[in-house]
Design goal:
The complex is a heterodimer of chains A (566) and B (311).
Chain A: H1 2-19, H2 24-35, E1 45-52, H3 57-61, H4 64-73, E2 75-83, H5 85-97, E3 104-107, H6 109-118, H7 125-131, H8 134-143, H9 146-151, E4 153-154, E5 157-158, E6 161-164, E7 173-177, H10 178-184, H11 192-204, E8 216-218, H12 232-237, E9 246-249, E10 252-255, H13 260-275, H14 287-295, E11 299-304, H15 312-319, E12 325-328, E13 340-341, E14 346-352, H16 360-374, H17 383-395, H18 404-407, H19 418-431, H20 434-440, H21 444-464, H22 469-495, E15 499-500, H23 510-531, H24 539-565
Parallel strand pairs in A: 1-2, 8-11, 13-15
Antiparallel strand pairs in A: 3-14, 4-5, 6-14, 7-11, 7-12, 9-10
Helix pairs in contact in A: 1-22, 2-17, 14-15, 15-22, 19-20, 19-21, 19-22, 21-22, 23-24
Chain B: H1 2-6, H2 21-39, E1 50-51, E2 64-65, H3 69-76, H4 79-110, H5 115-126, H6 133-143, H7 149-156, H8 168-196, H9 200-208, H10 213-237, H11 245-251, H12 257-260, H13 263-273, H14 277-306
Antiparallel strand pairs in B: 1-2
Helix pairs in contact in B: 3-14, 4-8, 4-10, 5-8, 6-11, 9-10, 10-14, 13-14
The chains are: A alpha/beta (566), B mainly alpha (311).
């Protein structure tokens, strides 16, 4: 929604320029074919696939992107079905067990290995080597996609194209209430001790100044971790605890959630809960509930990725003119501390049905979106031409706001090149030098970011006080994007390459399928109960014992075997 | 009708009677739906005995046959006995309370003489039945939160905060009471019908013998509907392992699994969330087996003690 509203503003501004030009789509098609000399299928071929819900089904089927695929590649992409994300995996399982899969199918890792076993998909090694453009490959390299490709490879063949999020975009930072800290006269914490002090102050010293004891320190929800915001694993990181991943310890792979560091962390949280620093109802909150509560100004800080302030923070920004956030690296984490947690960065694996005549179509779909996002900054095309088409039609809403990004069939996060782009844009904003601004404006995405951040800097305060909801919405969007730079800056500087990832990676064993759900439930229940005081902190030790008795020993052994066999 | 009567009719009864075909064909859509959605899917029970991998196909025969492995996995899973215990406890408590509340309400309402008041009350107690748990669940999460209206009331009366949704003890009580509150109004319908069927002459006789209202209820109304009470209670036994999934899934959280996790939610987490289809099917099949046995027992008991028969 918000995107659309800003889009409309931009379209109104740019529509005048476009009106006089020739059909920009045809010009763009020519340019694309000059860059990537492929023969578009004539007549267009039908390619069947499936998708999960990003917009309404009608909007998805009417997407401008589908026109682009048809014009550029000669491919009619047809959705066999569209499902909500929550049911997507199960529907794909049903599809797979019927043996009749569509031409292109996004699957998870377990499904991928089953499909390879069952011989239902085409190998893609040659298709990727010959078909992927240099640009696509470079963006994948920048994203750190090695592990994903290794996971998709078996017996020397590549079986799927992974959809990758750049590794450094998965690291967590701490999001603090700047306005509360100003009220209290406190600084951002740089180590755990200061964090604890700040926590106490947030919960007890009435940081919002309304004279009531209605504030809490940390935002938590019932799922505890794993999502883009209100993520407890960021807090755990400051203890050197990794409750959600498998870590390497003394030459062995062990589960992070049963390590003594987690007990330390839980002891602190249990104290906080007892002292009233944590919302008593956090066990009831879903992620959207906790964001609602954040938007009401209940919490002093939380942990998340670069979009942590999406929703909750944005609403608070609109509701409370004093609100501002401060983004800092996790205390005691980074080059001088514990390695920072980076999440598994593979979204899904795109496979091609065995016997499909044109497996190269899949790679072309990847090429085209990378081209649109970044070709001009790489000096591959005429900048102005590219921007005209890209900005006006695809990125920023296009004809009647057909929601291009959400409507794209493939949405690899690699195309954003977020980190590099943020630095370029920030440099342009700081120096104001024409060549820096030029560099920032050289991509469609860069231009959006620059414009949003620039608007925030110059007119943000004024827009924020507007009575007009549309302006206010746009202001919060600008603010969000302007702030993202600080996330990258904080995390890049502090963490460097001292990252830790899940050692389990793509390993999947029978024992994981058999035991993991119960083990994970046990972990989640025990953690929650220790925090809420339902159980004593020392019950952590019996949890560790139970973990091994309930099949954790078998799972650990299997994962070790698989990991060291690689 | 006249023509039918004049024709020689074979006195065989049941479905063989020619004039029953119209009724039987009306039943057909229901039977087809029942076959499609309740009987045909039973073929899928096969996967309880396999190590089911979707990519190998449902009936391709290439799945690994593992016999009762999934069942032994299920029964040794520490979450299973807890879920079973919770299911049985919640169902039986709900059943008893539900029966008492419905009967009590039906008796009270049957004594109401003002018909406007009667209808109003009736409507008010039915309404919750038509509200889905999705909506009721979120309303309850607000009302029973630590700073919700209920706890504020308790606080203002000088009581301590009660973690209705966060502590295992209060949580199970909340589940029972809220479910009974939601459904008992609907249950009164059948009891009110039963009370309406009691011969008014009995009340008259009781009054002449000098019975007051409580005595009339004690000696006429309750014996008059005891038959229905027994039958409905017996028939409910078959559903003892069906706990109200909609209710619990909307209210529970890991902190209260100890008293709120039931077989249905366990199956949901194992099967749908974790995609462990074989294990979830095994637990589901166990549930179905127990349900079948209990239902058969209940029908037998109903036949034996209340002379109720379906065939």
């Amino acid at each position: 929604m918000k995107r659309l509203l800003i889009c409309i503003v931009v379209i109104v501004l740019t529509v005048g320029m476009a009106a006089g030009a020739e059909d920009p789509m045809l010009t763009a098609v020519e340019a694309y074919h000059a860059y990537d000399p492929i023969d578009a299928f004539e007549p267009p071929i039908d390619v069947y696939t499936v998708n999960y819900v990003t917009m309404t089904a009608a909007e998805m089927k009417n997407s401008l992107w589908l026109d682009v695929y048809r014009e550029y590649l000669g491919v009619n992409l047809i959705y066999k079905w569209i499902m909500p994300l929550s049911q997507f995996d199960n529907r794909v399982n049903a599809e797979i067990s019927s043996g009749d899969i569509p031409d292109i199918l996004p699957v998870n890792f377990v499904q991928l290995s089953q499909l390879i076993d069952a011989g239902l998909i085409e190998p893609l090694t040659d298709v990727w080597e010959d078909g992927a453009s240099d640009l696509t490959k470079r963006m994948y390299e920048l994203g750190g996609c090695e592990t994903s490709f290794r996971a998709a490879t078996r017996d020397g063949e590549l079986w799927a194209i992974p959809l990758v999020t750049p590794v450094k975009e998965t690291t967590r930072a701490m999001y603090l209430r700047q306005d509360w800290m100003d009220n209290l006269g406190m600084d951002a914490p740089t180590n755990l001790e200061e964090l604890l002090e700040l926590c106490e102050a947030f919960a007890t010293n009435d940081p919002d100044g309304d004279g009531r004891d209605n504030t809490y320190a940390i935002a938590l929800y019932s799922g505890l971790w794993g999502d883009y915001t209100a993520d407890l694993s960021g807090f755990a990181n400051s203890f050197g605890a990794y409750p959600t991943i498998w870590i390497e310890k003394d030459g062995q792979i062990e589960y992070g959630g049963i390590q003594p560091e987690c007990k330390e962390m839980l002891a602190v949280l249990a104290d906080w809960y007892q002292a009233g620093y944590i919302d008593k109802d956090f066990t009831l909150y879903s992620l959207s509930d906790v964001m609602d509560q954040f938007a009401r100004g209940k919490y002093g800080f939380m942990y998340g990725t670069h979009i942590a302030m999406l929703e909750g923070g944005q609403v608070l920004y609109r509701n409370n003119p004093d609100f501002d956030s401060m983004i800092v690296a996790l205390p005691d984490v980074g080059t001088d501390g514990y390695p920072a947690l980076a999440y598994d960065n593979t979204g899904s694996y795109y496979v091609v049905r065995k016997g499909f005549e044109h497996p190269e179509v899949l790679v072309q779909l990847f090429n085209i979106i990378h081209y649109f996002a970044s070709a001009s900054s790489e000096g591959l095309t005429d900048k102005d031409m590219d921007l005209t088409w890209w900005d006006e039609n695809l990125w920023t809403g296009g004809q009647g706001g057909r929601f291009p990004w959400n409507n794209a069939y493939l949405r690899p996060e690699t195309i954003h090149n977020n980190i590099e782009r943020s630095y370029i844009v920030q440099k342009a904003l700081e120096t104001g030098a024409p060549e820096d601004i030029d560099a920032a404006l050289s991509t469609g995405l860069g231009r959006v970011l620059y414009e949003e951040a620039y608007t925030h800097m110059t007119q943000g305060d004024q827009m924020r006080l507007s009575d007009d909801p549309v302006t206010l919405l746009a202001a919060s969007e600008n603010w969000l994007h302007a702030k993202r730079y600080y996330h990258y800056k904080a995390t890049e500087e502090a963490y460097g390459d001292n990252l830790v990832t899940d050692k389990r990676g793509g390993i999947i064993t029978d024992s994981i399928v058999d035991y993991w759900e119960s083990l994970y439930t046990l972990q989640l229940t025990t953690y929650t109960q220790i925090i809420t005081g339902e159980k004593d902190v020392d019950d952590f030790d019996s949890f560790v014992e139970a973990f091994y008795q309930m099949g954790g020993d078998i799972v650990t052994a299997d994962i070790n075997d698989a990991y060291y066999a690689k | 009708m006249l023509t039918t009567r004049n024709k020689p009719v074979r006195r065989k009864g049941g479905i063989y009677r020619s004039d029953n075909w119209a009724y039987i064909s009306m039943l057909l859509p229901t039977v087809i739906l029942l076959l499609m959605f309740n009987y045909l899917p039973m073929a899928g029970l096969l996967i309880a005995f396999e190590r089911f991998i979707p990519a190998k196909g449902l009936f391709s025969g290439s799945q690994d046959w593992v016999g009762l492995r999934s069942f032994s996995m299920a029964f040794t899973d520490p979450l299973f006995p807890q879920a079973l215990r919770n299911t049985v406890f919640l169902s039986i408590s709900k059943m008893i309370l539900y029966m008492m509340a419905s009967v009590g309400m039906a008796i009270l309402m049957s004594e109401l003489k003002n018909s406007f008041h009667k209808r109003l009350t009736q409507t008010l107690v039915y309404i919750p039945h038509f509200i889905s748990w999705i909506i009721l669940g979120s309303a309850m999460r607000m009302m029973f939160a630590s700073d919700g209206i209920v706890n504020r009331l308790i606080n203002s009366l000088g009581g301590e905060n009660v973690g209705f949704l966060t502590e295992p003890g209060p949580f199970s009580r909340l589940l029972i009471v809220s479910d009974v509150w939601k459904e008992f109004g609907f249950g009164t319908i059948i009891y009110m019908a039963a009370i309406a069927g009691i011969d008014p002459g009995l009340y008259e006789a009781a009054r002449i013998d000098g019975a007051n209202k409580p005595q009339q209820i004690r000696y006429v109304t309750i014996p008059g509907i005891s038959h229905i009470i027994v039958i409905l209670s017996l028939l409910n036994i078959g559903g003892v392992l069906n706990s109200s999934f909609d209710q619990i899934i909307n209210l529970y959280s890991p902190n209260v699994y100890q008293s709120g996790d039931v077989l249905d939610t366990l199956i949901y987490r194992k099967g749908i969330v974790a995609s462990n289809y074989s294990l979830a099917t095994a637990i589901g099949m166990f549930k179905g087996g127990v349900g079948l046995a209990l239902t058969s027992l209940a029908y037998y008991l109903a036949y034996r003690f209340a002379d109720y028969r379906i065939f």
